[in-house]
Amino acid sequence: MPGDGIGPEVTACAHRVLKEIAARYGHKFFFSVQLIGGSAIDETGNPLPDATIASCEQCDAVLLGAVGGPKWSDPNAAVRPEQGLLGLRSRLEVFANLRPVKVMDALIGTSPLKGEITQGVDLVVVRELTGGIYFGEKTRDESSASDLCTYTAAEIERIVRVAARLAASRRGKLCSIDKANVLETSRLWRDVTNRLMRDEFPEIELETLLVDAAAMHLLSRPRDFDVIVTENMFGDILTDEASMLVGSLGMLPSASIGESALGIYEPIHGSAPDIAGKGLANPCGALGSVAMLLRHSLKLDAEASAVEAAIGAAIAAGARTADIACDDDAVLSTTDMTDRIISELD
Ligand code: NAD
């Protein structure tokens, strides 16, 4: 689903890489292109048309660009592009959003932070995706508004299990982030997490941080983190912050998964209306999402690693889009960057 803004530009690159992988590894992928977000509102009046849902439910994986933009952002609009995205996540029951943040040595100079802080950062944020304040009841009249934040113990347990299993397959450290000094949902989050980790994952080292302190620790000691688990809104905000460890929002991929193999794969960035249509978008977040799609939904581990290695090799060889370029670097367009990455697949 290309979506809006730079979404169609980066998904076109992702589509090309998938076709290259199919050709090189002898697979046949069947593609169905569907509407979501603002472009779906324009064509059908609905940010998540029934045909889109039906198609997603028949597929093995969903690849998404981004939704939204100024054209549809009137606060009084009856329908909004983001409703399409939230609706799809909820409908497909993809409650765990995995956002890896790995700093490549070749990009250390790109981050606004000092290299001695960012070098070697390799963490994954596991963000709860279908609960919390984004999905709670909303009210609004002329003088007041409210957004309800709710979590059940079962919702917390299933996301913490995903994160703990991931930590067990990595460096064995889990950090749970909440706001338990103020929010009741966070106090439940902390109780459930502590109990579950003690009963089911005693071998995993558990750290607990308040979200305000975590925002600081992410910048002061990011290398210490292995897997982070947190609720929907905190995860949304902290991962945009964490993208600056890498240097650009355009670099970060994500996978949204649930109990089944079906997942939604999308770069963490939005539709970037400021650069849309100019060939400036960095396709790496979308291409990293292709790698996650191959690994998680299609169980094609070698193919996934090949895509990740190609992105790494192109960047190590100096390929740069504008967002990750330093002073003297030659700047590549979205499609030229993709060509360089595809050439590294060999
Ligand atoms: P954004 O992520 O679109 O852009 C933030 C900044 O990062 C911009 O300066 C942009 O140019 C830059 N950027 C983002 N992706 C890039 C890429 N691939 N290459 C180079 N630079 C990149 O966030 P925003 O500007 O706050 O939001 C724009 C629209 O996107 C809004 O309508 C918002 O609701 C929507 N949005 C959608 C999603 C999604 O679809 N998952 C996520 C976040 C925001």
Structural descriptors:
43% helix, 10 strands, globular, single chain, Isopropylmalate Dehydrogenase, 346 residues, two-stranded antiparallel ribbon, eight-stranded mixed sheet, alpha/beta, 12 helices, binds nicotinamide-adenine-dinucleotide
Could you explain the architecture of this structure?
- The protein is an alpha/beta fold.
- The protein has 2 domains: 1-94 and 259-346, Isopropylmalate Dehydrogenase (3-Layer(aba) Sandwich); 112-246, 3-Layer(aba) Sandwich (Isopropylmalate Dehydrogenase), CATH 3.40.718.10.
- Helices cover 43% and strands 13% of the residues.
- It contains 12 helices and 10 strands.
- It has helices at 7-25, 38-44, 50-58, 81-91, 115-118, 153-168, 184-200, 211-220, 232-246, 284-296, 301-316, 334-344; strands at residues 61-63, 96-102, 122-128, 138-140, 145-147, 173-178, 205-210, 227-230, 255-257, 263-265.
- An 8-stranded mixed sheet has the order 1-10-9-2-3-8-6-7, with helices on both faces. A two-stranded antiparallel sheet has the order 4-5.
- β4 and β5 (145-147) form a beta hairpin.
- α8 (211-220) packs parallel to α9.
- The two termini are 28 Å apart.
- The model has no long low-confidence stretch (mean pLDDT 96).
- The structure holds nicotinamide-adenine-dinucleotide.
Fold topology:
Layout (H helix, E strand, L loop, with lengths): L6 H19 L12 H7 L5 H9 L2 E3 L17 H11 L4 E7 L12 H4 L3 E7 L9 E3 L4 E3 L5 H16 L4 E6 L5 H17 L4 E6 H10 L6 E4 L1 H15 L8 E3 L5 E3 L18 H13 L4 H16 L17 H11 L2
Parallel strand pairs: 1-10, 3-8, 6-7, 6-8
Antiparallel strand pairs: 2-3, 2-9, 4-5, 9-10
The structure holds nicotinamide-adenine-dinucleotide.
